Amino acid sequence: MAKLYHLFLLTILVVIIPTLVHANVKEQDSYWENLLPYINDTYWREKAAKAEETNNIAYTPDPYAVSENLTSVVSEMIVGESTGRRKLAGKKLRRGHPCIATNPIDRCWRCDPNWATNRKKLADCAQGFGRKAIGGKAGPIYVVTEPSDNDMVNPRPGTLRYAVTRNGPLWIIFARSMVIRLSQELIMTSDKTIDGRGTTVVIAKGAGITIQFINNVIIHGIKIFDITVGNGGIIRDAENHFGLRTKSDGDAISIFGSSNIWIDHVSLRNCRDGLIDVIMGSTAITISNGHFTDHNEVMLFGATDGYDGDKKMQVTLAFNHFGKRLIQRMPRVRYGFVHVLNNDYTHWEMYAIGGSKNPTIISEGNRFIAPNNPHAKEITKRGASEGEWKNWQWKSINDVYMNGAFFRQTGPLLTNRPFSKKDMIKARPGTHVGRLTRFSGSLRCRPGKAC
């Protein structure tokens, strides 16, 4: 297994990587040339081999079944609301004010006033491809008490870096609101939850978060912005290991060869590279309820045409708001299967969804509001000739197009899958997107009250 991985890395070095308009750092040959000496030691080869086995288990042979399940839940909520059988609002609070949980993920936990004493209930709420991510549910709660990040090899107890590099499962919370400037990339271990509820946790003006060759991670309720490139050096990546790292990329969150990942209610903007990158065979991922603004290349799913291991990549994008001053890549996909469900695309300058190398993209119930630029009305962009992309499975189902937006569909008709006629017609999900994404981004939660 390790030999195959080594061969893959060597192969990447001779690949000429095509791009859509501009290259993410991971699409450049120099990235892999610089990375190879650091990732090709025995420790990382063993981690890569183990992660590949875990990722293969996390991969769903029939991705349509997963996307259909999430669609059905949303449909039942919306249809029930319109008929009076079921409401999107949750439990009543004091003085008759309702807790409004407008989508099925939020409905699972947000209207519980005791969420702060039952934090781990959140782990039961993921849906889509990342639905099996339970993070640190099996471990104790760890409280981050200070924002410092000064020692990369022996991080101080009470810091976020100390918490995420422990070997066992941990549910990580914060003693108070804080701004954390990461001196170098924050390299996580498996079975961790970063839970920012009840405080305002900001990671800014330093390096970002790296999820590499691990599994079972939840990141919830934090803000990340103004992320820069870390210089690299000796950095701890586990309780029992530290080693030399090259420069980090400048991503807010980088998911590299990992699986069972859920990113929920994050607010991300203005990073040096991508906001969220999913590469190197990562799979079983849900990105939900996020709010994204002020960025060029928002999301990269699959970094190189030369690595078909990303065929196993499966990502759910649900209930996110792609907001002001975004340019492109929401997401940009190579290979893989991406279910883009009930997102609100209110701004883009070039295009919203792009890809190459025959990815499957099912766009369902999204709202697309095109820019005023008459040359940027098309939602989709393909990095290939028409002879290649005309058979790619890119479908738009019950999407809402505004201000001249249009989605260029390709591929054979979907028959008997993934969505039933009931899901497509009665749910009318695209018209409800404003409500479904109403509470996107990091929430202001206070203990003792519904969030």
TrEMBL record:
Binds 1 Ca(2+) ion. Required for its activity. It catalyses: Eliminative cleavage of (1->4)-alpha-D-galacturonan to give oligosaccharides with 4-deoxy-alpha-D-galact-4-enuronosyl groups at their non-reducing ends. Its EC number is 4.2.2.2. Pathway: Glycan metabolism; pectin degradation; 2-dehydro-3-deoxy-D-gluconate from pectin: step 2/5. The keyword Lyase applies. Residues 1-23 form the signal peptide. It is an enzyme of class 4 (lyase). This is Pectate lyase. It comes from Pisum sativum (Garden pea).
